[in-house]
């Protein structure tokens, strides 16, 4: 908790700010129209202020920090002798980045030295550089919120942004979204990241698009890991039996990074002990789809029961098509199976491999198994849609 709960703010001029939602645990600062908006205005105010300037009092009354937090960070601001520069910085955060008072308090608490920054020489030019790259004011504010004010004012910020954007097809919104899960993307050492990505692309045949997917997924921390840490993950990925430098090895990397060895061993035992699979069948499924071992046991159990009792598949068959255990049961497997049964009953389709129906895209399924039969089975589309809607309403 960084803000003071319900204590009155001293009658010093408060900062203007653009209205924005603020967390309920924070008390927003009052808004007045006579806030200092420039260094000259702030300096003029300081000329009439008492000479006994207190950094801690300024952090409490102007930045709305708790006294204990202010006392902790105040030593980092010992060089400040007046409120001139801090007030200018606070006005910039409120006006140029549209940060609400609670978020300004968070930013100052995380990086109090931002109050010593020059707005015209550091902060404003950084905002201009980001805006030229396509960032909106809101997105620039999110950088401060998610990565910290230190990251925003760093000279390495723009080069870091320019490094990641090509992997994300130039999408600024994708980068900002990625920072929510891993703020370290913008502060990691570039040389380390380049070495790590090069290693992943060489051993796992990752494309630039794959790297972009990693960046916005739970695997983003792997991209900023050291090459030694990546080597450890690669060694664990080898245990799935997928050859390196193949497209399938990418899934082995994801599985090895996403789950601990103990979790993977437990999931393998789940297949053997609860589902009755043989060791060979487990290895077959893991080699074809390593990420199967990261799927929840509940989903696997429910899909397995449907595939064996309703569809009539056995372990050998399912192990050969492990994706069946990952698909959405009510939204994909059940509706498509119902269509297949109708077509088989009318002798309109003689195929028996349900995995072929389950694996194709939604567009291809409708084109191959719905539209061609609407003349002979007018209600086929309704049967399928009803099953899908039933799932969505659950």
UniProtKB/TrEMBL annotation:
InterPro entries (alphabetical): MTERF (IPR003690), MTERF_sf (IPR038538)
Record's keyword annotation contains GTP-binding: no
Renumbered residue ranges of the record's region Disordered: 13-49
Pro residues: compositionally biased ranges: 13-22
GO biological process, one term: DNA-templated transcription termination
GO MF term set: nucleic acid binding
UniProt keyword annotation of Transit peptide present: yes
Compositionally biased region (Low complexity): 23-49
SMART domains: Mterf
Pfam families reported in the protein's UniProt record: mTERF
Keyword line: Transcription, Transcription regulation, Transcription termination, Transit peptide
Sequence similarity: Belongs to the mTERF family.
Protein name: mTERF family protein
């Amino acid at each position: 908790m960084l803000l003071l709960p319900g204590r009155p703010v001293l009658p010093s001029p408060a900062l203007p700010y653009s209205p924005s939602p603020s967390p309920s645990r924070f008390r927003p600062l009052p808004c007045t129209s006579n806030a200092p908006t420039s260094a000259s205005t702030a300096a003029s105010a300081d000329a009439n202020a008492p000479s006994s300037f207190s950094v801690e009092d300024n952090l409490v009354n102007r930045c709305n920090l708790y006294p204990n937090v202010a006392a902790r960070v105040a030593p980092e601001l010992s060089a400040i002798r007046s409120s001139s520069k801090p007030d200018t910085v606070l006005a910039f955060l409120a006006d140029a980045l549209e940060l609400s008072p609670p978020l300004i308090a968070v930013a100052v608490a995380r990086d109090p030295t931002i109050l010593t920054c020059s707005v015209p020489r550091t902060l404003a030019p950084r905002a201009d550089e980001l805006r030229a790259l396509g960032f909106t004011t809101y997105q620039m504010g999110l950088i401060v919120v998610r990565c910290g004010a230190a990251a925003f004012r760093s000279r390495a910020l723009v080069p870091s942004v320019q490094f990641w954007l090509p992997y994300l097809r130039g999408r600024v919104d994708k980068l900002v979204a990625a920072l929510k899960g891993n703020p370290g993307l913008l502060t990691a050492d570039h040389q380390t990241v380049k070495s790590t990505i090069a290693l992943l692309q060489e051993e796992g045949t990752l494309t630039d698009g794959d790297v972009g997917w990693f960046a916005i997924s739970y695997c983003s921390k792997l991209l900023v890991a050291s090459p030694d840490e990546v080597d450890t993950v690669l060694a664990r990925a080898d245990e799935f039996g997928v050859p390196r430098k193949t497209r399938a090895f990418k899934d082995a990397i994801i599985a090895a990074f996403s789950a601990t060895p103990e979790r993977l061993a437990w999931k393998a035992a789940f297949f053997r002990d609860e589902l009755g699979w043989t060791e060979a069948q487990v290895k077959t499924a893991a080699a074809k789809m390593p990420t199967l071992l990261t799927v929840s046991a509940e989903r696997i159990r429910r899909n397995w029961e449907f595939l064996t009792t309703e569809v009539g598949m056995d372990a050998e068959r399912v192990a050969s098509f492990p994706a069946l255990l990952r698909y959405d049961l009510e939204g994909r497997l059940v509706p498509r199976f119902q269509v297949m049964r109708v077509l088989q009953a009318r002798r309109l389709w003689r195929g028996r491999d349900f995995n072929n129906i389950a694996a194709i895209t939604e567009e291809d399924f409708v084109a191959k198994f719905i539209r061609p039969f609407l003349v002979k089975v007018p209600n086929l589309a309704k049967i399928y849609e009803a099953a899908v809607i039933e799932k969505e309403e659950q």
